[in-house]
Design brief:
The complex is a heterodimer of chains A (about 375) and B (about 300).
Chain A (H helix, E strand, L loop, with lengths): L14 E10 L3 H9 L4 H8 L2 E11 L4 E6 L5 H8 L7 E6 L2 E2 L5 H10 L1 E4 L11 H5 L1 H5 L4 H14 L15 H14 L4 E5 L7 H18 L2 E6 L2 H7 L2 E6 L2 E6 L1 H6 L4 H7 L10 H4 L1 E2 L11 E3 L4 H11 L3 E5 L5 E6 H9 L18
Parallel strand pairs in A: 3-8, 3-9, 6-7, 7-8, 12-13
Antiparallel strand pairs in A: 1-2, 1-4, 4-5, 9-10, 11-14, 13-14
Helix pairs in contact in A: 7-8, 14-15
Chain B lengths: L9 H4 L6 H21 L1 H24 L2 H16 L2 H16 L3 H31 L1 H16 L2 H12 L3 H25 L3 H9 L4 H35 L7 H11 L2 H29 L1 H4 L4
The structure holds adenosine-5'-diphosphate and magnesium ion (MG).
Magnesium ion binds next to helix 3 of chain A.
Chain lengths: ~375, ~300
């Protein structure tokens, strides 16, 4: 067991998914080549009665980041996340973590991998109804064979971290949905695993509770820097949580990128449709729409904004100060451009016309 | 005879059975072969059933030789522990006292010992078989028809092979009762485990539980209410079969009923019958209340 949380993300392995295919059905192997050569999901289903779960998935899920996988119901999200801890085995392809292919692990290796390297949070919580909150939280540790004297303090610590102190002796059925999912989160965190798999973990919760839980997760992640794979069908949730977002459709990846990249440059009509209703002001950053610094020795606007400020926030600041424009700083704090009310409003209401050159999103740190 | 057959030829009128002689030879062949095998292995069969005999005698002695008020106190204590319901305890006390007043205490103890042994054996056999059936679809598909036959076969028929193999007495009686009473235990164990929430099982898998950890930590605890329903049914069937098993020499209430039938002792028949009903109700209420209590954690609603 490695104490992975103390490692800097740079030194850790991400998860790499290579050429992954999953076909459900008794003779899956027989149809892989046909699918690789372009047989569609419908054709496979109608003619051969097999279900195409995933096709040609290539993804890098970087260490210490939240990678969101998004798609509509039935797009293969759950199937994909279950490949990472081997709950589902691929028909073809590799899932690499720390140089090891999950698919090649023996049963024992896979069990150890699940015990120490991964933890999972489920959409319907999947708590053990006959165990109390405390016993649920230490479940992973029980499975590892750690005795209660050692695991109870750990469990209590995480119960406290997710805000459930005082509920240790309650049974799951005595708790509301939001509280149950806090237990689910505490149970996963108590494992001290590097990889945290969350399959629509917040989808069953009411909107307000859901926002709460998103905040809980972001706060914890700021400190723990786990490698999180977060599944959702909700674009707002994806944009809020995801360092990167992969969009899945019919078992294939349609686009991978940061939230901003996807909103500003949807790869195709399907995604454009998807992102149309998004509140752009909360996604697009000032640096993205800033115009280059004027030539020569012109005075720059007095108000200075970080490049990572969202347009919504920038607009509010401009309004507060009652000014028309502001200087945008790069990540080193040097002026890199100018932004004015008009540009911002244009970007917030219509698809923004941005030069690729201004698009230095890669350098920004997660705000 | 043929005349009543609309004048049809013999072959279409009466079902063409094997000739009587062939059938007789066949029957004799099977019966004799069976008997020879049993004779040949009689020592082994005796040895195999000795622990059972011992178990049965010990328990029966314990029940019949202990002073009645101690037995009554123990029974009521167990009922209380299982049900935690004062109503059920009082009901049981009244039932047991009536049994004693009508002079059936000793026979009832014999029957209780018998049912207790048969139920314990049925659980010890049924639980592992049920678990195996829950783990393997193939085993389940083989087992199901066997259980169907076991449950549909008239209970008297069980007595025949049992008597041929084990002779007359208490032990063959218990074996017959176990065979009759074990199917619900197997079925409901299998069902209970299969009905455990798939998501919870998946969670156990995701945290790296081995199949043993899953069985003891998740599947059995969560299927316990269903398994308890199986225990309950097994007890009820054992009680019913104890009467039938008195035909092969099992004592107790069943024997009295059998004698009452043979001699047309109306009152004795009914008194013994009611005594059986009283025990059945006590067992049933206590084990059901226990099963309900096991589900308590799933009953509490959240706010
Ligand atoms: N065990 C299975 N057998 C057959 N088809 C399956 C199985 N699991 C999932 N599928 C199919 O794979 C597709 C993706 O399912 P899933 O990963 O659950 O989607 P999502 O989580 O995005 O809603 C669906 O069409 C679903 O019907
Ligand atoms: Mg899903």
């Amino acid at each position: 067991m490695t104490d992975s949380t103390s490692n800097a993300p740079e030194n850790r392995s991400g998860i790499e998914i290579r050429d992954l295919y999953k076909i459900f059905g008794p003779n899956a192997d027989r149809y892989v080549d046909a699918v690789k050569n372009g047989m569609s999901k419908d054709e496979l289903n109608d003619k051969h009665n097999h279900v195409l779960g995933l096709q040609n998935i290539n993804l890098e899920l970087p260490p210490g980041q939240i990678s969101v996988i998004m798609g509509l119901s039935g797009s293969g999200k759950s199937t994909l996340i279950r490949h990472i801890n081997g709950l589902i085995m691929p028909t073809a392809g590799e899932i690499l973590y720390n140089g090891r292919d999950v698919m090649q692990m023996t049963t024992d290796e896979l069990r150890e991998f699940r015990r120490h390297e991964t933890a999972m949070v489920f959409q319907k919580f999947a708590l053990l109804p006959h165990r109390t909150v405390l016993e649920n939280t230490r479940y992973g540790l029980d499975i590892q064979g750690i005795d209660a004297a050692k695991s109870n303090p750990i469990a209590r610590k995480w119960i406290d971290r997710v805000g459930l102190s005082g509920y240790e002796d309650y049974y799951p059925n005595q708790l509301s949905g939001g509280m149950q999912q806090r237990v689910g989160l505490a149970r996963a965190l108590a494992n001290d695993a590097d990889i945290l798999l969350m399959d629509e973990a917040f989808s069953a919760l009411d909107p307000l509770i859901r926002m709460d839980m998103q905040k809980v997760l972001l706060d914890l992640q700021a400190e723990l820097k786990k490698t999180i794979v977060f599944i959702t069908h909700d674009l707002d949730e994806a944009l809020r949580l995801g360092d990167t977002i992969a969009i899945l459709r019919d078992g294939a990846v349609e686009q991978v990128g940061t939230g901003q990249e996807i909103v500003l440059h949807p790869a195709n009509d399907y995604i454009a449709e998807f992102v149309r209703e998004v509140n752009r002001g909360r996604v697009i950053r000032a640096a993205t729409v800033a115009t280059p610094l004027p030539e020569g020795d012109v005075a720059l606007p007095k108000l200075r904004l970080k490049g990572t400020t969202t347009l919504e926030l920038a607009a509010r600041k401009l309004a507060d100060k009652d000014v028309r424009n502001a200087t945008v700083l790069d990540k080193n704090g040097r002026p890199m451009g100018v932004i004015d009310m008009h540009t911002m409003l244009t970007a917030m209401v219509t698809p923004a016309e941005v030069d690729e050159g201004d698009d230095d999103l890669d350098e920004e740190d997660a705000a | 005879m043929a005349a009543s057959c609309w004048g049809l030829p013999e072959l279409l009128c009466e079902f063409p059975a094997l000739p009587n002689k062939t059938l007789r030879l066949m029957r004799m062949g099977i019966d004799n072969g069976f008997r020879d095998i049993v004779r040949h292995y009689s020592d082994q069969i005796d040895a195999a059933t000795r622990p059972l005999q011992w178990f049965l005698n010990t328990l029966e002695n314990a029940f019949t030789n202990t002073p009645w008020f101690v037995v009554l106190a123990v029974i009521l204590g167990v009922v209380w522990l299982a049900s935690r319901s004062i109503k059920i305890v009082i009901g049981s006390a009244i039932g047991m006292c009536l049994i004693g007043v009508f002079g059936l205490w000793e026979d009832t103890m014999t029957t209780l010992a018998m049912v207790a042994v048969a139920t314990l054996i049925a659980i010890a056999l049924g639980l592992p078989i049920g678990i195996l059936a829950a783990r393997s679809d193939r085993f389940q598909s083989v087992l199901s028809p066997v259980l169907d036959v076991m449950q549909t076969m008239p209970s008297f028929v069980y007595l025949i092979p049992v008597v041929v193999i084990f002779g007359i007495g208490k032990v063959p009686g218990v074996i017959a009762v176990v065979i009759y009473a074990v199917p619900p235990m197997i079925r409901l164990t299998n069902l209970g485990i299969r009905l455990v929430d798939k998501e919870v099982i998946e969670a156990a898998d995701a945290f790296g539980a081995s199949s043993r950890q899953k069985l003891w930590g998740v599947q059995l605890p969560l299927s316990l209410p269903t398994i308890m329903a199986g225990v309950n049914q097994t007890i009820m069937m054992a009680l019913a079969m104890v009467v039938v098993a008195s035909m092969v020499g099992v004592g107790g209430l069943g024997k009295n009923v059998l004698q009452a039938i043979n001699n047309q002792f109306f009152t004795i028949g009914f008194l013994n019958g009611f005594a059986l009903v009283a025990i059945a109700i006590i067992f049933d209420r206590a084990s059901q209340a226990f099963g309900k209590r096991l589900q308590k954690h799933s009953e509490v609603g959240h706010d």
